[in-house]
Records
---
Amino acid sequence: MNIDLSRRSFLRLAGAGVAATSLGALGFGEAEAAELAHVRDFKLTATTETRNTCPYCSVACGIIIYARPDDTGKRRVVHIEGDADHPTNRGTLCPKGAALKDFVNAPTRLTQPMIRKPGAAAFEPIAWDDALDRIARAIKDDRDANFLATNEAGVPVNRWTTMGFLAASATTNETAWATYKVVRSMGVVGFDNQARV
Amino acid sequence: MTTNIQDSPRTALSNPPVQPGQSNLGQPAVRRSSAGGPVAEQPTPLTEVAKLIDVSKCIGCKACQSACIEWNDTHPEIETNVGVYENPHDLTPEMFTLMRFAEYDNPDNGNFEWLIRKDGCMHCEEPGCLKACPAPGAIVQYTNGIVDFIHENCIGCGYCVSGCPFDIPRISQKTHVAYKCTLCSDRVAVGQGPACAKACPTHAIVFGTKEDMKIHAAARIEDLKSRGYENAGLYDPPGVGGTHVMYVLHHADKPGIYNDLPEDPQISPVVEGWKGPTKTVGLAAIGLAAVGSVVMGLFSRSAVADEDEHQAQEMVDRAAAGLPVDPIPGREQV
Amino acid sequence: MTNSWTDIKNTDLVIVMGGNAAEAHPCGFKWVTEAKHQRGAKLIVVDPRFTRTASVADYYAPIRPGSDIAFLMGLIRYMIENDKVQWEYVKAFTNASLIVKDEFGWADGLFTGYDEEKRDYDKSSWDYVIGDDGFAVTDPTLQNPRCVWNLLKAHVDVYTPEMVERITGTPKDRFLKIAEMIGECSSPTKTMTSMYALGWTQHSKGAQNIRGMAMLQLILGNIGVRGGGMNALRGHSNIQGLTDIGLMSNLIPGYLNIPTEREADWATYMTSRAFKPLRPGQTSYWQNYPKFMVSFMKSMWGDAAQKDNDWAYHYLPKLDVPSYDILRMYELMDEGRVNLYFCQGFNPLLATPNRDKVTRAFSKLKLLVTMDPLETETARFWENHGAHNDVDTAAIQTEVIQLPSSCFAEDEGALVNSGRWLQWHWKASDMPGEARNDVWIMAQIFLRVRELYRTEGGAFPDPILNLTWDYADPNEPHPEELAREMNGRALSAVYDPTDPTKVVAEPGKQLLNFSQLRDDGSTASGCWIYSGSFNEAGNNMARRDNADPDDTGAYPNWTWSWPLNRRTLYNRASCDLNGKPWDPTRKIIEWDGEKWSGYDVPDISPTAKPGEVMPFIMNQEGVSRLFSRGLMRDGPFPTHMEPFESPVENVFNKRMRGNPVVRVFAKDAADLGTSDEFPFVATSYRLTEHFHYWTKHNVVNAALQPEFFVEISEELAAERGIERGGRVRVWSKRGEVWAVALVTKRIKPMICDGKTVHVVGIPLHWGFVGAARKGWGPNSLTPVLGDANVETPEFKAFLVNIEPAVGEAVS
């Protein structure tokens, strides 16, 4: 493809050419003026392929993620397609799965921790360390204040009901297990997931 | 890979290549080109391909639209809902395929049916768009049957739209060229099927050689007949020489109920007569657009003066209705 | 799912009721179209709306939301009356022949033992007669009037086709046609599969809906066979996994239970988990409960869990109520009794009922922490978005910390699909900006809290200080380490129970599977049902061999499924009493005279003789339950109950509102509407173009379905003067929304108990952040009520009113 000729200028040329021949009333056969027929360059060339699973519903379609590094060296998703070798989906994807690239690259992806202070009208950035320290301190203080070691009958109950934790529905088993360990070891009982909604 | 749905033809026998490879679609495989554009003397012979859309298997999920957008890197607008399921509202330069939904009370048995049809380029064997196109080499047909737009050669006049019996191409207001489904020519060129067919969850869209697709269609039609759809059949309209996108319809006797799928599509007589007696009319009509664009210094079809547009359309309509058409005096000399 | 997605290709009849598989699970639904194409299978859809699944169905019938039990009991009645019963299966593999206590009965819509004050049943009469030998008494001839079969027959007798039509609005002829189609599957060589999802679960009696179909499937002999089963399609990609791993108030991984206060010590806790067989020679696999439980405690607390401290039993919290589920938590929050709340990949502001209440509750928190790859409405609940989120920002004193996490493309690990396959995936790309993996985030929180307890002491720090955290990098445990931990390993030598000199697992080695778990502290396993997923053979979840010998659809070497890589649950029931397949063309396993073998891992001990050990090994009876004893709070048989908000009264008992044993908080009870004020039945659902509240962030999906709408019939539109594409206001006792009206022939008014019932369909996908147009979710309208057994909110049947929008407060 001739990259020296910008599309717009080429357009103008083509348009003018047709007008001229039209005025001449005959012969559109200026074949030499035309760009030769071609198809788009195959866009997956030189990408990396990674097997993954669609994160939406629990049919769990196999997908292949095609990625390549961006200017900063970070690997970015350039395309996602169904995995033809997967027994369930056989390469197919639904309207959500077929557009997964634009989920990963959504403009509303979060990129830094934020804090909204009581009464404030906006989020403001906060450093990871500060955010995590703040959370840990809040957990410690509230647990110490409200942990119920025994009930009225003196039976050890070791529960903490003033904190709740809603677990995800699309994280991995491994994340779930790490989450279970952390949350349960604190005595949290207001623990739930998205199975019902 | 073991596959146990072999007699369901499907697009994705393997995942797409990521190694650089040879494309088999290019100038050497061009068998037709618009307005005398270059055609290979002995075009590379390729097997005729076809996409088969079985509306009886289609669940209207729009995966085809989604896959089309992602593969072709288009950006359809986020519109509104106007009280129907179609979105975008119509085919656009950024949306090459569209699910169309029709609510149908079947008078024969009293049953309600929701007829859902994937609309898009039919890749006609006798392509009206190509015949109408005045820009050399802007529309080509490859020897496998794919009709493709070569955008660099397009002048945005919109005559492919008038020439199309299915009302498919759309002119971009941004780039001022015409767009439509390419049948994913870039994928087919490396041995992959179109993105829509690969994605289609129920294999309602399948892709393969036209021969195979007809055989598959026959089996589907038999199944539909066994379920009481007596008029099930294949839509491969002869008026345009057959198509490289075909439908299996449960009511093949009434294509119109599927959101106005033409009963017997024909290329407009104006376009059909391109090299015949009505050449002048065609030229006049096209001249209006092309000249208009130069005069206005703009290149979109919408930039053509309303009056010119109206007159040109009138000629086309009259020709289509079999009425005499006179060239507009003096217009050629503008 | 008892079966798998790929197994659906083996079916003869698919019934989609309580779900919308084509729209919500399109790629799984392909196996329905395959079965139709390859086997000539038929598809039945029963749904209030003519859905996209219905558009490819062979037969469709409408049904009033919330009336499914009457339909299902009507089907069972039809099968019994017309002898469409797989008799050999029913007699041998169900509890049809077991004798029930004389005191048990049903009248006026209620079972025996109802206490109106307590809103609960005394379930003591809902049980078998136990003989002197300690086993349940049976009558294999089914002559005893008190056997389960005869009680069931009597129970369903009232559900005549006329009664079904009266309650459900399904025309009698449509109901009978469906009954006839289903009846054909009582043949041992024909099978039906049931595909359902939230359309059955999100009711105040959701679990009973599902039981109704499960009972029908047992009567037809369709459980355990290829192409059969009860197939819960499940919603999110790993909600099966998160439930397996017990991330719920009352669960321990592998469906073990958090103790209650009444179980003050280990011995008491185990007493109620003895699971002694109720019939001679039966497996009653839960007898192994102590092995699973001890191994879990060792996995959590290692050396701190010892026999002499009851395996650190008191490190576990004890419940004073059945569960602190999400509805209870929001009630407590609303009362100001919750201070901290974490939402990990969850958007409850739009996902839980009565959004006004949720907003009010969140406003009373001290700190809300969200972890998500995307913006959520929850993280911004305090932000004013006009009518879309009309809050007084300055008055909300909740601090909110929003943490950016990874998404699927950026992490590694396993997700469990609805067919119980654990599929490992790999990282493909880097996270944007400063986003971090969830495991890292959880580890950071834990390490910091542990450090505070280490340095400062505080309330009962032991379970925190002693939690095992021996990962190579404590700051970010590797997914493989966590997966190995769930599989379990030998802490000391593990011996063969039949030969105490033989070591089956050396110390430190990964366990082969849960058969190697012990209750003596020699093994650790975080989640017993996953034992076998990552053993000494490696990471079995990463396997990608897609061979399928003889095309059974089992794919035995593709990833790994729990339990034990078994693909079809109860597969022993695919064979008759001699161990031969009911349908030789659909063989899964077979008894060869000495052992069971075949295409799948047998769901029974490989040497259990077919005539002796029955297939339902998890049940104490060894057989399946048509009568569920006292295991469900709202009855041993499903009985028709109206939704809490219903246009009609319960035909059996006019005083009964909703499910009589559902927990209702006082304020929520006051928020219930009645049909004089709210005459229309609303139901909520998903559309195929979107996934929950996620894809509104995706420009492609937003383009495919950009704007919030509600669906109504042409008749209702005419009655209310609503135009297609016009805007409407929909309101309930709890809130209001504005939407585009989608007027359609696909919803038709129904006649129920002599009354015309209109349905308003309310899809769920729009909010106030993301790429799509701003809108509302159905939760602005829905009541705070859960299922009697599992607290799943009643999202599928409630009352609203509708009118053309006038003076809409929305730009």
---
Amino acid sequence: MSHGYKVSAALVGALLLASGGFLLTYAPAAESSDVFSRMMWGLAIGAGAFSVALTIYALAYVGTRKQRTREQQRVASGQSRGGYTPDGLDMRPVKPVKFWYNMALIMIGVLFVSSAAGTGMTLSALLEMPARVWDFGLQMVGGVAQVPDEEARGNWSSAFDAMLESVAIAWIGTIVGALFSLPCGILAARNMTPLATYIPMRFILSVIRAVPEIVFAVAIFIPLLGVGPADRGGAMAGAFALGISSIGTLSKLISESIEGVDQGPLEASRAAGASHIQVIRWAVLPQVLPEVIAIWLYRFEVNIRASAILGALGAGGIGRLISPPNGLFGQRPYDWEAIGITLFVIIAITMVVDQTSGFVRHRVIHGKTMRQKKRKPGDLAADEPEPPRSVAV
Amino acid sequence: MSTAVSKRSVAAASAQGQSRPRPPSPKVPPYLGLAFLALVAFGLFCWTWEGDAVLFFPLGDVVLWAPRDPLIGLIIMVMALLICFKLRISPMGAFGGLALIAITYWAGSNIHFIDRIAEVPGRLTGGNTRQQLLGYFNPDWSYLFLHNVAGTSRPIWGEWLITLCMAVVATIIGCFIGLLLAMLASPVSSLNKGTSQTIKAINSVVRSIPDVAWALLFAAFIGGTAYGLGALAAVLALIMFNIGIVAKLLSESIDAIQPGPLEAADAAGANLIQRDRVAVLPAVMPSFISYSLYVFELNIRASAALGVVGVAGIGGELSRQIGRMSQGYENVGAILWALVFVVLLVDLLSLWIRRKLL
Amino acid sequence: MIKFENVDVVYPNGYKGLSDISLEINQGEFVAIIGLSGAGKSTLIRAVNGLVPYTNGTLTVGETVVDPKNKSKLRKLRSKVGMIFQQFNNVGRISVLNNVLIGRSAFTPTWRSLIGWYGSQDKEVAFQSLERVGIVEKAYNRAAALSGGQQQRVAIARVLAQDPEVILADEPVASLDPPTARKVLGDLRTIQRDLGITCVVNMHHLDLARDYADRIIGMRNGEVVFDGPTQEATDSVIAEVYQRPLSADEIRQARGDGRLGEHIENPTEADLTQAVPAVEDGIERKDTV
């Protein structure tokens, strides 16, 4: 099928879809559900945009065809351009038709428009926002900057308590994840295990990764360990939910870094008659350990942020302090001073933890004597930059 | 053969009286310092054992350390130090081990680790935990497909669509802004050192506020958590969340790009914007696409979770169902199973796109 | 055309790149700069377009004084001064044409390059420069997919698209295998002669310098130790520049006897893998069409 046909078929389809969506917006069924009507609006707008974009694309395509013909004629007639006598080789290529690339771009645009329609956002609310942000922001800053009276002292200490509880949750979650992830990672590395363990292990890990933390928290650990503040078990539930879902990501990253190890030492120790365990202990672990520690620490940072959302579900930590119905944002009118103090504590502790863990990660990977190698500017082109060893996400 | 070799070498070594290098045994003073640290920690443990508050500058009282059974903690720490000393681990490594134990001890007792674990068997055998778990594993599918959100005419599956739509909108806007910020945040592509430092600082503040807090903040800023406004709050929150991630990861990728093409663009007289467009953007495009897909996956999870605090989408329904948990765990179970299913689908989709593109 | 008056370059880390250089390079000259690694060849070249700021003295290109502090003036200067690099420095992921259009940056409004919609004039110039280096049929290929010789041609086309008065080339052929190196350098020489462009080239290969340059400048420790027409650059003079006697092998090559088994001072990976002179890409192209 040539591009002309593809384009026109897509165009007709899009037009049909647009008009269908438009008609269905007014269909009786739409009255029963605003989601449906919004979706149809989105569909109509999206398909309309799609057809307009396709038309533009088709025009450009026709244009390129003309250009190609012109170019062929020019070369055939031996017309020179810029003092050369052209031969077949000097025929300028015509811009290639990147059909799928253009379609993908168009589709992203359409998806965006129809999704924006589909969420049913009322953007007019944005107009009043700046004034409110300014007003509330001032109150928050005022809350942080004031000399603490009795109430503010209470806010500060409850914020610190809750945030430290979040850190504790994240830490225990990371420890749980770390304990399980090293063996799982080794079992899921292709160069360490036979296919018979590799495939089930990978499958289990991808199932764990697919399950969001809140599912673990709500469905398993809150019933098992309790709900609410730390002394009623909510924090434990959060920690275990984070821990279990950490296993998935951590094991995957660890197995990838194990698959990337230098094969030389492995061969050498196998040649020396080392058993499988010995190979892992003396040839693999020393190579990957710094990276593994970095991955664990990175996950710790991620877990601190993730623990907030679990708190909103009743699993302890900072989320419990801020989320409705019982938290700071559940009270009317909002106590902006308290919110400001809490946010300040969240930001401060998260940043301190990030900096510390970033420092330790750097230290673990690069060692004590790591110094930025001064590049002599003159040799800039000559030495290639070291490929980044990404601590993946 | 091998015995012969080892015999001979032993004999040779003793005969020549050579002193073989022995692994350096760690110096005692640093270890004494570490032991002192352990004692200090023990002191803190003891002091705060029964919930006495440690005064934490004049802002408020904070219980920084409240571990249970401080003596056990001390014993573990000392044992670890002794083991480290025997294994000839450097003081720095031993310090790391000590810190690990102390923090874990603190964190564990802070969240009542042992007490909760001890309770689990009791919960499993009696009470409604059993019922609850059973309910989750027998989800009520008809609820998911046929019912409406209580008190409205919106079908439950429509909430799923809203969730997906929020994720798409937030991903596209957030990644785009993130790209711009990443360009400003990396010293390679930024105006000057000052701009890049400022943007980095702002970005780390943005990143340290969790997505729930963003959602609540925006809901308040917009002026209510009524539905419709809720979607806007959630989208704005997700956008901030995405900006944080994309700007950080992408600015690190920009730091690492090959300097050659940049130099070539400079030498051709390109200005900063042109240079970033022609030399930086194409080089980081693959990572940008891959981060965007990653962020999209995160958004699906997060937008489901964000509903918990009262914004639109399936999360809102989830929190409502959790609120009236006693009426039946089957509904919550259905939502959770569907969540796993949707996330799995999105993961597969993004895996497919990744394969196609990269 | 290019005038160095007592130019010093001191790097921020205190390393002295150039010390007290005084030179004058005339319009339309093809100058080769030779010397050991670290002799300051790259620094000299990069000082001309301000990629390395000079710290003392005066450096003039045409009528303008190079002013490393003034960014917009520097950009204006760089639009007239093209530069070719050892590693080609093409953007691998975009098409050859877009790479060449980078050379038009200084002449294109920012918004146009931002959305990638170049004017037809710019495109015409880009195509013509591609035609000049003979790889116009690759215009829409990805730059990274080309061979080394072709990539360097793209880089030359990029420079030509600037419509330069001066071309600076930093080891332009050091990453290429010997036959390709000759071919590329020959092309550069022809273009330079046709268009009357001043050309300053860093070289490792003595024989190439002797074959193509009008004038040879020898450098050692950031100073000019030899400056004269190619005929005057006798073996003894070169040995003086390198501070060691040339081996018989090198002398034979320098006289042009050893075309194929050329000695390569710093063999790069490309040299080692492409040691057998394969069908040169220019010829190959003719065959396939």
